[in-house]
Amino acid sequence: MRNVRILEFKDIIDTRNSERPMGHLTPIESGIDIPFDIKRVYYLTRVPENTTRGFHAHRKLQQVLICTNGKVTIDVSTPSEKKSFVLDDPAKGLYVGPMVWREMYDFSAGAVLTVLASEHYQEEEYIRDYEEYRRLAQEYFKEK
Ligand code: T46
After folding, report:
1. d(CA 64, CA 94)
2. What are residue 12's DSSP bridge partners?
3. For residue range 45-72, what is the model confidence (pLDDT) as tens digits?
4. Max CA separation in the chain (angstroms)
5. Index of the ligand 1 atom closest to the CA of residue 55
6. pLDDT single digits (tens) 80-95
7. Which of residues 22 and 79 earns the better pLDDT score?
8. What is residue 137's three-state secondary structure?
9. What is d(CA 33, CA 14) in angstroms, rounded to the nearest whole number?
10. Concatenated DSSP letters for 86-133?
């Protein structure tokens, strides 16, 4: 799907202590593991059951969504494509580029959705009206 893809990060399993597992470590380096310079990080936590968030697209913003704990489902769409991703692996990220409509739901109890963003927060950058989004996205993808 255009402007959407899964990124795979390193999953380092610490084996220093062979008797007792010591867990996983995932390093993420701006410009290496992420295809942009990270200007902002935020996370969604304590999302109540049956909550759906999102319902918008961004004009230029690029983001990588990582479920660093638990599980969440993300639906992404453009006027001509639609895909659903279940994020439940802290070593995988969902890259979402410009002009992609997103909805996030089915947050498990304790889910943490961590987001790395290419720009600082700007409300004017959002498209929250679906009809406006459809019109602008049709133009945007026609020119690509
Ligand atoms: C996306 C998903 C995963 C800020 O003040 N600063 C920020 O950096 C952000 C992201 C939000 N806000 C304020 C703006 C709203 O008053 O927090 C409130 C909720 O934000 P938003 O409507 O963006 O929340 P979500 O969870 O619907 O969507 C966000 C991202 O916008 C979106 O791009 O992919 O998280």
Report:
1. 5
2. 25
3. 999 999 999 999 999 999 999 999 999 9
4. 59
5. 27
6. 999 999 999 999 999 9
7. 79
8. helix
9. 20
10. EE--TTEEEEE-TT-EEEEE-PPTT-EEEEEESS---GGGEE--HHHH
Assess whether pLDDT exceeds 90 at residue 32. yes
The residue whose C-alpha atom lies closest to atom 30 belonging to ligand 1 is 54
In angstroms, the first-to-last Cα distance of the chain is 13
Token duo for residue 42: 């935020």
DSSP state of 139: H
Residues 6 or more apart whose CB falls under 8 angstroms from that of 4 comprise 76, 83, 94, 95, 96, 97, 100
Atom of ligand 1 nearest to the CA of 123: 14
Q: Which two tokens stand for residue 23?
A: 């867990």
Q: How far is the CA of 9 from the centre of ligand 1 (A)?
A: 24
